[in-house]
Amino acid sequence: MKNDLSFIIGSQLNLYEHQSTWNPNMPLRGLLYFAQQFEGLLAARGDNIYGKGRIALPTPIYIVFYNGSGMNTDNLMLYLSDSFSAGRGKGCLECTCEVININRGYNQALMDKCHRLWEYSELSSEVEENIRKGMRREEAVHTAIDNCIERGILTDILLAEKGVVLHMLLTEYDEKKHLRNTFREGREEGLEAGEKIGREKGRQEKLKEMVEKKLAKGKTVLEIAEELEEEIPIIEEMVSGLTVDYHTCHRNL
Q1: Which region, left, alpha or beta, applies to residue 70 given φ > 0 means left and ψ of -120 to 50 means alpha?
Q2: Which of 19, 99, 152, 206 could form a disulfide with 76, with the two C-beta atoms 3.0–4.6 Å apart?
Q3: What confidence tens digit (pLDDT) does each residue in 157-168 have?
């Protein structure tokens, strides 16, 4: 399995990954990866899992650096058991994944300690800011790279591997553009309906419909907020209302 970075320091097996779009299945990916690594470690050492002695294992640590939208806190913990039908804390398995927000303005203490991470955060933020100003993706990325070089940010990488970085960022923002366009089409339909029943009410009804569809597909609150570009509390409140409506209807039936 491919991952961004894994290594053992002392008695810890560390797995680091980076995400720019929300993925609630990171704990499941971590579980499969760690199981594979432990299996390889046992085989390399010739350990007998059927023996009487307890086998020593490195402690797994799983961290994801996130610079997408929809996360308004410094840190967030994801749990494998959230995917279980019985819910968090149930069952005999658990794998946790700590998500660290590396967008501009978050985790400042960490950014101060790790200058390279701060530099990457600045590059990503420059691109996002240029897009908000109305620049096309290509122009936004080119301008961000040039500005960062002028400011001495990631200069060694950007000067040597500018083409590679450009391709990586354009690929990343192609995916984000698709998500934005998908929601924008639905939002326009909602605004048209809102002319008759009130613009805000129409937008809320359309948003509720889209949230309900995504909820039925098994999407999480954070994933829905990411795709619809809405604040997490708004989506949480809407999902809570939909859940109450469902249970009320089910009891009446």
Answers
A1: left
A2: 99
A3: 888 877 777 777
